[in-house]
Specification:
Layout: E1 7-11, E2 14-18, E3 23-29, H1 44-57, E4 61-65, H2 78-95, E5 99-103, H3 107-115, E6 120-123, H4 133-140, E7 143-147, H5 165-182, E8 190-193, H6 202-210, E9 223-225, H7 230-236, H8 244-256, E10 261-264, H9 267-284
Parallel strand pairs: 3-4, 3-10, 4-5, 5-6, 6-7, 7-8, 9-10
Antiparallel strand pairs: 1-2
Helix pairs in contact: 1-2, 2-3, 3-4, 8-9
Length: 292
């Protein structure tokens, strides 16, 4: 059993220090068609209420998205995406100082979200889907999550294929980070995400999770989003709304094997698992759990 090495992630002057246990990034989908909670928080008031609930439950970061990236999802233009996310971001920024992230691949959306107080850009195209995204992030000083995806949301699950999924995903993320650093982005502002479920079969997902620590060799924080995903349904036979147990089991594994940030829907339960696992790991290493 091994935990994650301590790292720091710089996001617009805010230093996120990640030690024995990963940070929790709460998923806040402001969309009518997301795979897990589509439509539940499509209205700004409901979304803000849910966001504040996640903060109270222990979320370190709120990740706000206005375009579904589930398999087969239709594209949304920047105007509509901004209509969905901007009021939520503005309201949350007034209500809480928790770190805010925008889940977008569009520079126009990122710019306005950053102007409204967002500190992280979480981009499923690793800042490569929009030619203006790298410069937008660079100028803002924001942190960025670089995710691996084979294909696009419309095509990614058609026939994903790799010779060695762990090596190929790791190489892509390392090379993408290097390319962005060459363009002026500081390395300490970058985090990487293997993109569980994004152009991967069940076997690909399991291999990536089983060898999660190998992705951290470039020294960047590793973000993992697996909450309620379809590979858990294939393993358990459960529908999306009944995948909490599977999600938490996989999360516990990630806590023990090098994840730095866990992107989750169920914040309260995820925080409890992380606290429990990290306390047990500390006791096993002869350390104090830090809990009275």
């Amino acid at each position: 059993m091994s935990g994650n090495q301590a790292v720091e992630w710089i996001c617009r002057g805010r230093t996120l220090r990640i030690g024995t246990g990963p940070l929790v990034m709460g998923v806040l989908n402001v969309t009518p068609d997301s795979f897990s909670d589509g439509g539940s928080y499509a209205g700004p008031e409901d979304a803000v209420r849910r966001g504040m609930q996640m903060v109270e439950e222990g979320a370190d970061i709120l990740d706000i998205g206005g375009e579904s990236t589930r398999p087969g999802a239709a594209a949304v233009d920047a105007k509509e995406e901004l209509r969905r996310v901007l009021p939520v971001i503005q309201a949350l920024r007034k209500e809480t100082d928790v770190c805010l992230s925008v889940d977008t691949s569009k520079a126009a959306v990122a710019r306005e979200a950053l102007d409204a107080g967002v500190e992280i850009v979480n981009d499923v195209t690793a800042l490569g889907g929009d030619v203006d995204m790298c410069e937008t992030v660079r100028r803002s000083g924001a942190g960025a999550v670089l995710m691996h995806m084979q294909g696009t949301p419309r095509t990614m699950q058609a026939n994903p294929c790799y010779n060695d999924v762990v090596a190929e995903v790791g190489a892509f993320l390392a090379s993408r980070a290097d390319a962005l650093v060459e363009k002026g982005l500081e390395r300490e502002r970058l985090a990487i995400d293997p993109g569980i479920g994004f152009g991967k079969t069940l076997d690909h997902n399991l291999k990536l999770l089983a060898q999660l620590q190998s992705l951290g060799i470039c020294g960047l924080p590793v973000v993992v989003g697996l909450s309620r995903k379809s590979f858990l349904g294939k393993l358990t036979g459960r529908e999306t709304e009944d995948r909490l147990a599977g999600s938490l089991a996989a999360l516990a594994y990630c806590v023990m094997h090098g994840a730095h940030v866990m992107r989750v829907h169920d914040v309260k339960e995820s925080v409890d698992v992380i606290r429990t696992i990290t306390s047990l790991m500390a006791a096993g290493n002869g350390e104090s759990a830090g809990v009275e």
